[in-house]
Amino acid sequence: MPPEVGTYTNVWATDSPIDLQSEPISVIRAAVEGFAVALKVGPYNSYPGYGRFVDEGTETIQGKADISVELPTQLEPAIAVSGTKHYLLYDVVETATTVDARICEVAFGIYQPHPTHPRKPYEPADLRPVTDPRMLSPEGHILATPEMWRVRIERDPERTQTAPSSTTTMPVTGEKFSEPERYPNRDIFEGWTLKQYSYESMQEPPCNDWAVEQYPMALIDGLGLVYPTNPIDASYLPTLPPYPGWTHGPSM
Q1: In this structure, are residues 214 and 105 in contact, taking their beta carbons and an 8 Å threshold?
Q2: What is the 3-state secondary structure (H, E, C) of the chain?
Q3: pLDDT digit string, tens, across residues 126-136
Q4: CB within 8 Å of 18: residues ≥ 6 apart
Q5: What is the pLDDT of residues 83-92, one digit of tens each?
């Protein structure tokens, strides 16, 4: 990954017996993770194939209507973050050719270790005291509002995946399996079409309740999930190993 992305990791969970490393669910994961990287360095510098995947999804009028996630035409300077971002795959409808998923994105665990300018409300938290009322709840806590994603993909019958899935573990003679990587190094979007792609900040009980399970020190007040201290303390925001992460094979 480009260094300006930072060292943060992504950890996924599900509330149902779903294989997070299956091909279609891996595409869902990459679509969501790839957006965070694209915000920093652009879609074609994000996960391999991400830029094409999103562009092709918006080629039709229907696609433009259902794909509401848009990247700014001019990117702001990237903000490197540390810690861990948690995702909960909590509502999935999967058929032989489609996957329709809702995902909680909990950014409570990521922060700017070395901020370079006064923080804006939409930027990741940092470790400085917050006095701006736009970033505080009525009770004076720093806000950590989860995002709720809706992603729907469809298998493209005219395009097949010619390379092994980037989540497939490839044993090397005489070596142990490697630890999971933070990002895929090959295009795993090939063979899939993006049909719906949207997210919004909202008070979502499944997201808030699940976030507190991951971070027991977090609080829920009148505006939802909030940090327990002001300023935020990095000691309760560790960088965890990625899960399930990605296995690197030969680059294509």
Answers
A1: no
A2: CCHHHECCEEEEEECCCCCCCCHHHHHHHHHHHHHHHHHHHCHHHCCCCHHHHHHHHCCCHHHHHHECCCCCCCCCCCCCEEEEEEEEEEEEEECCCEEEEEEEEEHHHEEECCCCCCCCCCCCCECCCCCCHHHECCCCCEECCCEEEEEEEEECCCCCCCCCCCCCCCCCCCCCCCCCECCCCCCCCCCEEEEEEEEEECCCHHHHHHHHHHCCCCEEECCEEECCCCCCCHHHCCCCCCECCECCCCCC
A3: 999 999 999 99
A4: 25, 89, 92, 94
A5: 999 999 988 9
In sequence order, the β-bridge partners of residue 197 are 67, 151
Q: Which residues contact 65 (CB under 8 A, 6 or more apart)?
A: none
Q: Two tokens at 92?
A: 């999935």
- Please state whether the predicted TM-score (pTM) of the whole model is above 0.85: yes
* Nearest C-alpha neighbor of 83 from the set 248, 232, 247, 246: 232
Q: pLDDT tens, 16-48?
A: 889 999 999 999 999 999 999 999 999 999 999
Tokens of 10: 């992504």
CA distances, 35 to each of 40, 46, 174, 208 (Å): 9, 8, 37, 22
Render the burial of 90-127: b for 16+ CB within 10 Å, e for the rest: bbbeeeeeebbbbbbbbbbbbbbbebeeebeeeebbbe
Amino acid sitting at position 106: V
C-beta of residue 121 within 8 angstroms of C-beta of residue 132? yes
